[in-house]
């Protein structure tokens, strides 16, 4: 069996420890790295080094820095690499608040945030939940008796 490293660790043992099959390893080993992928990796390294040195630079300045190091590339290539890696100018983009924006209210607040009820059948609320397992759940409950009228 072919040895994986200079240490003499068999491929079968390494694949078993990493919980991967041997066939994808051998497929990866048989397929050499394409010259375009290698050039892209060198360009990404040059852009990353320039971004680490000056995080306020945008992709055009980063491309200029990469060209100065001897790696020619178009501005569009620099933008594509920077965009894919998430390297943005420190001053260029406004960051979102966890991707959540406050939307318009769904309806008027008829309860005025007072969730108490003096008698049964006076105040009913609905709660709609959506979970990742595609289970939708709707609960309609009476606040006075704290019972659920409908579920699922």
Short description:
The chain has helices at residues 11-17, 22-30, 35-53, 59-68, 75-85, and strands at residues 124-130, 136-142, 147-150. With 152 residues, the chain is α+β, with helices and mostly antiparallel strands. Among the domains are: 35-85; 111-152, no CATH class.
Rounded to an integer in angstroms, the radius of gyration calculated over CA atoms is 29 Å
Helix-strand pattern: HHHHHEEE
Distance between the termini: 57 Å
Read across the widest sheet, the strand sequence of neighbours is 1-2-3
**Count of strand segments:** 3
Mean pLDDT: 76
Coarse morphology: flat
Tell me the fraction of residues in β-strands, as a range.
5-15%
Low-confidence sequence ranges: none
Helix content range: 25-40%
Major β-sheet annotation: 3 strands, antiparallel
Number of helices: 5
Query: Structural class, please?
Result: alpha+beta
Overview of this protein structure:
This protein has 152 residues and is of the alpha+beta class. Among the domains are: 35-85; 111-152, no CATH class. It has 5 helices and 3 strands. It has a 3-stranded antiparallel β-sheet with strand order 1-2-3, with no helix packed on it. Strand 2 (136-142) and strand 3 form a beta hairpin. Helix 3 packs across helix 4 (59-68) and helix 4 crosses helix 5. It is flat and about 75 Å long. The relative contact order is 0.07.
SSE layout and pairings?
Layout: H1 11-17, H2 22-30, H3 35-53, H4 59-68, H5 75-85, E1 124-130, E2 136-142, E3 147-150
Antiparallel strand pairs: 1-2, 2-3
Helix pairs in contact: 3-4, 4-5
